[in-house]
Amino acid sequence: MIPTADLVFQDSDIDSLFGDVTAEDIHEAFGRESTIDISSFLDETDATECKDSV
């Protein structure tokens, strides 16, 4: 099984990429992340800067 940490998608990405498989189906299969991905609240530049500083 692929570790869930490697699966980082927004719900809308899952819905559009996998068609009939909904984001909720993925959450049920793999479980929900225990951490919040803040990159969705930042623009791409800010997210990259945060990753580089870690």
Please sum up the structure shown.
Helices cover 48% and strands 0% of the residues.
Please give a structural write-up.
With 54 residues, this protein is mainly α. The protein has one domain. The chain contains three helices and no strands. It has helices at 11-18, 23-30, 44-53. The longest helix is centred in the C-terminal third of the chain and has 10 residues, at 44-53. It starts with 10 loop residues before the first helix and ends with a helix. The model has no long low-confidence stretch (mean pLDDT 60).
How do the strands and helices of this protein lay out in sequence?
Elements: H1 11-18, H2 23-30, H3 44-53
